[in-house]
Amino acid sequence: MLIIDTHAHLFSPDEQRYPAGPNPSRPPAGTGTLEHVQREMKANGVERICAIQVSGFYGFDNRLICDASKGHPDWIAGICTLDPNDLHSPGLLAEYVRDYGIRGMRSVPGRGPDGRQLDHPGVRALWKTALDNGITINLQTGYEHAAEADRLLAEFPDLRVALDHTLGLAADGPVRETLAALRTLARRQNCHTKLSFIANGPEGCRDGYPCRDFHEVVMEVIEMFGPERCAWGSHFPLEKYSPALTYAQALRIYQQELPLTSEARGEILGGTADRLYFPPR
Predict the structure, then answer these.
(1) CB atoms within 10 A of CB 162
(2) Residue 193 backbone dihedrals phi, psi, to 5 degrees
(3) I need a surface site. Which of 119, 154, 179, 198 has the fewest CB within 10 A?
(4) What is the pLDDT of residues 69-81, one digit of tens each?
(5) pTM over 0.85, yes/no
(6) pLDDT for 225-249, tens place per residue?
């Protein structure tokens, strides 16, 4: 069975070449590197990953993701992050796709007069560039922006969009409100979701592996979208983002613990991600 990890954050120990931004939050020593993720992939039968720009560490400096994407196009789909308020961002996105093989962009709200806005001209310009270049949008936002996300999904029906961490769904968060927002967005057939949330945060898996307290919520999400629009992600390095689980355990929940058919497992673990991030080019 094809297994693709749609949510892996990469860090480089070479901070001269890839400098950190202000007040960076580093992963535990020895984790998060390209070599580390390769070890986890080999040990668990994972064939490909989506490498997600760590904007909380590198800001909008995408050099590490671009270099990883260009250097390993057979198994890395690079996902950059760009500033919607920067007028140069659409041009940079097109350049990253052309010159580095970037296959997705993590979309974040722009800054408007009333605060952070997803319904924003800069966001629209980036979504249009993603559509023109045939790449997937990874939407990084929470349930509070669901109405704006719904409008954008309606305006870009031919653009593939995946919800990062399923709108930030977490056991210690606003589960009811997030599920209500997801029901609205799941009606849009171009909207997919990344199942990378089951152990997010320090309380994300309060009962320990296999996180049975949250299985009902996970299955509800899968029922909303259908397995063909759900994709597994580990949130690597788990030592930083999901310390309640190991990489193997995060994968095993979807391989063995959840009551899924073999067809559904195939879609969630690899089929959906293959269509979103590794289409024939």
Answers:
(1) 29
(2) -140, 150
(3) 154
(4) 999 999 999 999 9
(5) yes
(6) 999 999 999 999 999 998 889 999 9
Amino acid at 196: S
Distances (CA, A) of 43 to 38, 140, 258: 9, 29, 21
In order, the DSSP letters of 6-73 are EEEE---S-TTTS---SS--PPSTT-SSHHHHHHHHHHHT--EEEEE--HHHHTT--HHHHHHHHH-T
| CB atoms closer than 10 angstroms to residue 17 | 10
For residues 115 and 50, which has the higher predicted lDDT (pLDDT)?
A: 50
Beta-carbon contacts of 246 under 8 Å, excluding residues fewer than 6 positions away, are: 238
pLDDT reported for residue 40: 98
d(CA 243, CA 237): 9
List Cα–Cα distances, 50 to 85, 152, 169, 181, in angstroms. Answer: 25, 23, 20, 25
Please give the Cα distance from 230 to 272 (Å, whole number).
Answer: 6
How large is the angle between the packed helices 175-185 and 146-155, nearest 10 degrees? 10
What count of residues does the chain have?
A: 281
The CATH class of the 4-277 domain is alpha beta
Q: Give the long-range contacts of residues 22-25, CB within 8 A, separation 24 or more.
A: 24/56, 24/57, 25/56, 25/57, 25/240
Q: Is the backbone of residue 279 left (phi > 0), alpha (psi -120 to 50) or beta?
A: beta
Looking up tokens 């613990």 gives 257
DSSP-based three-state secondary structure for 240 = helix
The one-letter amino acid at 148: E
Element (DSSP H or E) covering residue 110: strand 110-112
